[in-house]
Each structure stands twice: as C-alpha cells, then as structure tokens.
Specification:
Oligomer: single chain
Strand content: under 5%
Largest sheet: none
Number of helices: 16
Structural class: mainly alpha
C-alpha cells in the first residue's frame, strides 16, 4: 500500500468523523488540514514505518541467529499439513466471533448488523496484515461506516474498548499461567506486564464509574479548545464517544463482551495447538497458551506490514522455553503465520466485494451504504 493510499485512508476518516444529519457537519476548512499538519502527519507515518521495519529486521535476526537452514527445510518438508484443516477452521470460527463481539460492543447493537460487523472486521484484519501501525483499524471504521452509516467516532471508540478487553483477558490468562511457566526472564517480565494491565483496566472501570457524571462536560471543555472543533461538532463527538464506550458502564453488557473475548482467544489458542501434531511437537499443554499470550502482546509492538519477524520471533521464544529447538520452532512459526495470514487476506477480499469497498482506495465514498 502506497503513501497515497494511506493518505486516502486518513482523509476518509476525517470525512466520516462526524455522525450524519443533525449530528454535525464538517466545513471545508475543517476537513482540509494545513500543509504543516500534512507534513507533520507524513513525518510521523514515515517514522512509524521505519521504526516498524527496524524492529522487524531485528526480530528476524534474533529468530534466525544460529539456526540451521537445513533443519528448517527438513522440518517443513516432513510436516503433516493435513493438520492445517482444523487450524484454519478454528481461525475462521474465531473470525466470525470477532464480528459477533464487535456488534455486542455497540451500545445500540441493532444499528449495526452482524454481517456488516463480520465483513468490516475481516477487511480491517486484512489491511492490518498489509499495512504498518495497525492501520487496518482505520479501514475497518470506514467499512462499517459504509455498510451501516454508523458514526465513525462511535465505531472507533468501540475498537478502543475492544482492544482494552483483548489485553485484559489475555493478561488474566498470563497471570493465571505465570506460576506454572518456565522460569525465564522474559516470561517473568511478561507476567509483570500482565499484572499491570489487570490493575490498570480495573482502575479505569472504577474511574469511569466514579466520574461518569463529570466526564461528559470535561470532554466537551477539552474538545471546544481544539481550533477545528465547533461547539456543535464537539457535542456530536461527545455523544458518539459516549455511545462507543457505553458498555464499560453496563456490567451485564461488559461481562458479555468479556465472555466473547475469552472465547475468541481460547479458539485462537486451540488453532495453534491443533497444529502441533503437524510438526510432532510433544510439549507441555501450557505451550500453546504461552505462545498465544506472548505472540498477542508482541503484536502490539511496531513492526513491518504483516508483523513479519516479530510474529515468528515471539512464537519461537514461547516454544524454545519448553525445549523445542530454534529451527523446529521457527518452521512451526512460519506455517502458523501463514494460517493467520492467507485465509484472512482471502476473507478480507471477499468482504470488500460484499461491502463494495475499493481495496486500493478504501476511503473513497460509494453511492449508498449497504444495509443488511
């Protein structure tokens, strides 16, 4: 994806940032940033991309250092690829549940169909695989906006909540497993990070509950101070943010979302576990779960498109902690990465056709939203 395409995505996000109709409009001045802002954004994007490439290059070096190419080729040649079938099947079930979960995160879930959420999630994950800095989340917002007409701000805030739930559930798993895992420095650091995430999430929920009456006015005061935000637009953005984060203050809905999140990650862990026999990995039953948690947290680190290198290094580290050789672990990591790459790309391409989105210019507006 070129810089032009990335600029198109950013432009589409600005254009969709305000809900339809009476909820506010964006003037020509507001939607056209100054050249200095464009240069600053381009510099930030370039710096992020270069940082991601550097981290990926370092991860590739770590993963391949002192690894025999012969061991990798032999391991790949002798693998039993029939086990790809259940692994890919579980990947697709988890993908469908991601769509179900995203619909559940909208306060008024009837405003977005399950199909629109599934296709938008698929498109977002596809672009996450081919763009740096998780830019696919922006495309996901554009996709659901196109399919349902929902506010881009509201959709974006539900993604923020989704990410919080992901790291919270994974952190709970990490803390539960921590005493049972091998005594490695990086595993202990991961355990401390997981503990911090849990404390932070609980503190956030408590703060939102205690200050729920004051937060809307505080948000309005912050928004109106921005030079490109009018009073009317600030009010509409505040309402959209409230809708996008509303389930955080509704215990039953929050518990439902946490349950779906736990089920999704359990399926992702199982999809990696059923691939173990393909490489004759006879390790502890804890291995796929350490792999899941280590890999998921590693994905939050800036990297190249497709998280090349970071993905393989994190999977390799988890398996070598249980005595698997680096070459054998790297072979498994390459295949597992393919399982989580190519099916997602295929599903994302199909979903773009269903929604009617231009793959090269996802920010381009279509004629009419597709309501399912």
């Amino acid at each position: 994806m070129t810089e032009r395409a990335a600029a198109t995505i950013a432009a589409g996000t600005r254009a969709d940032a305000v809900p339809d109709g009476s909820q506010g409009e964006i003037s020509a001045d507001e939607s056209s940033p100054a050249p200095a802002n464009r240069r600053a954004r381009r510099l930030r994007w370039t710096f992020g991309a270069l940082l991601g490439l550097a981290i990926s290059a370092g991860s590739i070096y770590i993963a391949t250092r002192k690894v025999s190419l012969h061991e990798i080729s032999t391991s790949l040649a002798n693998a039993h690829y029939v086990w790809l079938i259940p692994s890919i099947a579980l990947t697709y079930v988890a993908l469908w549940l991601r769509g179900v979960r995203w619909q559940a995160l909208f306060l008024h879930r009837d405003n977005v169909s399950q199909g629109a959420c599934f296709h938008s999630v698929s498109i977002g994950l596809m672009f996450n695989n081919i763009l740096p800095s998780r830019a696919g989340e922006v495309v996901r917002v554009l996709a659901v906006r196109r399919a349902t007409g929902v506010s881009a701000v509201e959709a974006g805030m539900t993604i923020v909540v989704e990410r919080l739930l992901d790291v919270f559930i994974l952190a709970i798993g990490g803390v539960i497993l921590w005493p049972l895992l091998p005594d490695r420095t990086w595993i202990n650091v991961l355990g401390l990070v997981c503990s911090g995430v849990i404390v932070g999430f609980i503190a956030l929920v408590i703060a939102l509950t205690v200050f729920r009456q004051k937060l809307p006015q505080l948000l309005i005061r912050l928004l109106v101070r921005l030079p490109f935000i009018s009073d009317r637009r600030a009010q509409s953005v505040r309402e959209a943010i409230g809708l996008g984060t509303g389930i955080m203050l509704r215990p039953v809905r929050l518990a439902e979302a946490c349950g779906l999140t736990a089920l999704i990650w359990a399926l992702v862990g199982l999809s990696s576990w059923v691939l173990f026999p393909a490489f004759s990995l006879h390790t502890s039953g804890l291995a796929p779960w350490l792999l899941l948690i280590a890999n998921s947290f590693a994905m939050t680190v800036p990297s190249s498109p497709g998280t090349v290198g970071v993905y393989e290094a994190s999977v390799q580290a988890a398996l070598t902690a249980f005595g698997v050789s680096k070459g054998h672990a790297l072979s498994y990591a390459l295949v597992l990465h393919a399982v989580n790459f190519f099916p997602i790309i295929l599903t994302g391409l199909i979903s773009t056709a269903v929604i009617g989105m231009n793959v090269l210019h996802p920010g381009a507006r279509g004629a009419t939203p597709v309501h399912e």
